Structure formats: C-alpha cells, structure tokens
Amino acid sequence: MLICLTADHLVGLHRRIIAETGGPHGVRDLGGVQSAAARPFRTYDGQALYPTLEEKAAALAEGISRNHPFVDGNKRVAIAAGCLFLMLNGREITASEQEMERTAWALAVREIDLQQLADWFRQHSREKS
Questions:
Q1: Considering its fold, how many domains does the chain have in total?
Q2: SS3 92
Q3: Which of 32, 68, 107, 115 has the highest CB neighbour count under 10 A?
Q4: Where would I find the Fido domain in this sequence (predicted)?
Q5: Quick check: 110 and 31 in contact, CB under 8 A?
Q6: pTM greater than 0.85 (yes/no)
Q7: Do residues 71 and 28 make contact, with C-beta atoms less than 8 angstroms apart?
Q8: Are 103 and 112 in contact (CB under 8 A)?
Q9: CATH number for the domain including 72?
Q10: Is residue 108 part of a domain?
Q11: What is the DSSP string of 107-118?
Q12: Which run of H or E residues covers position 126?
C-alpha cells in the first residue's frame, strides 16, 4: 500500500523548509495544495494517470511548482515533496542538494516536463537496502 502526502503534510513540510531556509510562511491557495496532494492518484477510465512511484512523485512536485500555492518556497517544497514521497515508499534519494536545486529550478521555469522529472527521480533514487 502506498503512503501518500496529504495537504496537511505538505503545509507542514512547507513550514519546516521555511524555518530551515528562510522566507515568509504562508499558504496562498489551500485549494492548490489540496490539488497537488491529490494529483499523483488521479485516474482516467479506471487507469492510473501516473502508474509508477517516480511518476507519482513527479506529478506531486509538478503540481506544487505549477500551482504555486505557498507564499514562498514553492520550488523547495516541490522537490522536497517528491523526494519525501519516494522515501516514504521505500526509495532512497541519491541526488545532491545542488542537483535537487537545479532540478527544482528547471521544473519551475518549464525546462523539464513531468516525464523528464519522473526520469530524474528514477535516476536519482534506488530501493532502500
């Protein structure tokens, strides 16, 4: 059974990231947070739109990045949420902090799309040993 991140988890993650890295706290659009949290589990005609763990992580991260639901820290929260989702579901992240920052920026400015982000998560994670 998959462990999912709820909107409350994402708001808590945002608080923690802002406390550690700086910036103003605050949710600009709770509906955007809720939408991002639900996105990895969306289906169409009974089929998962994002069937793999990496695609689910990418859908979550892209949802946060595109919805921009927080006052500040959206890029940081987006990549952290994708990584946290993978870790909660048995993956270990192998990317450096700098790689995560570059990827979060690339996602925010639309240099990479959801599938490219899913590939990045696949390349930068492995099964926990």
A1: 1
A2: strand
A3: 107
A4: 5-123
A5: no
A6: yes
A7: yes
A8: yes
A9: 1.20.120.1870
A10: yes
A11: HHTTSS-HHHHH
A12: strand 125-127
